[in-house]
Amino acid sequence: MNFKSIEFFQYRCFMDGILTFGEKDEDDRSINLIIAENGGGKTELLFAFPWVLYDFDFSTLSTKEATPYSLNSEIYRKLLTSSNGCVDACWVEIKFFHDMNTYTLKKIETYDKVEGHPTIQSKVKKELSVKLESGVTNPPITDQKCIDKILNEMIPRKVLNGIIFDGERMQKLASSDERSVDGVKGVIFDVTNQEKIEYLLDVIKTVEDNINKDIAKAKRGTGSRKIDIFTNKIQSLECNITNNKRLFENAERELNVCKSTLDDISLQLKKYDEIKELESKRIEAEKNLKRILGEIEDSVDHFNIELNLSGFALVIDEILKDAQGIIESFDVPKGLNVQAVDSILKKGKCICGEELSHEKITTLCSLREFLPPDNVNSALLEQIDSLKNNKENSRVRLNQYRSHIKKLDLEKTKLDGEITFYRSQISLSKIGDSKELEAKRSELYSRKAELTTLINRLPDEINADTIEANSYRSDKDALIVKAEISEKLAVKWKFINKTKKATEQLRDDLQKMALQKINENLKKSYREITASSEIGRDVHLVHTIERPGIKYRVVNYYVESVLNYYHNANWEILCTKYGLDFNNLSDSQKEELAILENAVGKSTGQSKVVAIPFAKAILDYSCSKKEDEIQGEKMYPFLIDAPFGDLSGDNLRNSAKKLHSFSNQVILMISPDSYNMVKDYIEPYVRSTVKLTKAASKNESIIGVE
Prior knowledge:
single chain; alpha/beta; Rossmann fold; six-stranded mixed sheet; five-stranded antiparallel sheet; 13 strands
């Protein structure tokens, strides 16, 4: 799939104009270059693509919160002051090529000044027409669901988050940015044909429901009632699982919106000089509070582990005293053990030099049966001493953890007070809309806490329900064998049950294979592009630890630090921290735990150095040949805005040199100054060049071909 053109009418800063794009030619030129000064429309152009294809929330873009609509802002403001009934519109049209067909998608948004409404009302309409390879053009499709279905087969919505990057988002990538997670999920979903697998599972469920109805109608023996009970329980649990998964996804989505809105509120408050210092102090205090809470959590985990492992030693004084008394009452001479007797028997003489008689040998042999292999008293006393020492050591460690927790708790209380003070000062301010913003922030904090609790709870509930449903399935299998129903019906149930398990396993295996391969691609791309790897730095996509906020995180780390940590890690403590089963901990999970515990921070430039290989890893995987017939090969274009800012040295040169190889079609948006820095590496691979020029004293950019 590749883009052929994009055309505008009254869309944000583009009043009119068209840009055309090419794909890789015989000279390996794949880059479509868009040059514009800062504020010239690069970001507006970048996000026009997702807006047309699906939708886009403009309020999520920093510095563009004041214009969260698609219509040109000057026209929008004129409409606000116009008479009721006035209407205006904007549209964007993109043409793209896929499987020998040319698609034209046009999105029109109409704005209407309606009487009785405080805001402008808008309506969206889409049209999709397809020109077939034969040259025949089908009538335009206007049904939204039908359009989305067609688009989803070519470039699913989530895939956009893996192929569209702007400078700001590149900085957020390594913090497990939700859109990056969607990018990974989207590519995997598309390439591994997950939609078809999910459709197959829906079909299997329908067949299973029909078989359950047939079983319910059949004449059966005493087990019939239990089969009905198990069927109802399985259906109820699977309904809960589906609902909880949907609830989890919605909660994650809402939590991301909460976080984004909180960031926006902070940015808006910083616009006021009088509040800027208070807001900066609040941010710093919250940053420190987050660190303190993490330390408290770690210390409590260590305290609990110590208590579980050695806590018993604190309460066994009486037992040790009794044991010591028993040993002293039944004393065995020190050194008298099996080895001592064997030594005498081997020599054939007593320690006094006298030859051993047959009677003495018999006595010594019988003595062997009553002696310990080692000195039992010494062994027992040594154990008692060890337990006493362990008790004291454990007491010291527990007191240290307790003292540290109390100290951290005092720091937490102090920081809570500081944050409350800063927020109250901001809310009391009469500058601008600071009071309203702070009130909104309070609401969002409360909702964020609720969503976080829900997100942490739901995976455990889903897992527990899944285990219980599988258990009922096994019980139902056993009952169906015994029940008096036709063998044909029993075989149908067994077959559909096994088919469901096999299909679910296939889905999970394909996801694991895809994640593993993307992670390998990420490491390879990182080594090719970054100079940091020369000093032992590496990157990893977390994919074996199933925990919200952890899985899909892109982590930077130093290889030597992880290796050293791995050999001395307390896996039990780490399993408690990350919610893993210690008894089933895999080597891959151990490696990822060690990486997470040794993650290093990133500067703005380092975050971009991670983002560029990340994008290449996704694109390389999507277009690679797969070992099985289920996974497909998908060619996506790559769109990127301002990728080279904050990069220098080898990181800058290597990124620029490799960019043309990311895809058969690269759409690069860049400022003139940045382009001059990398021109020698980019220019040989430029397919087309367009310049965007900002009009004087207007919110308008003019499209011109160079």
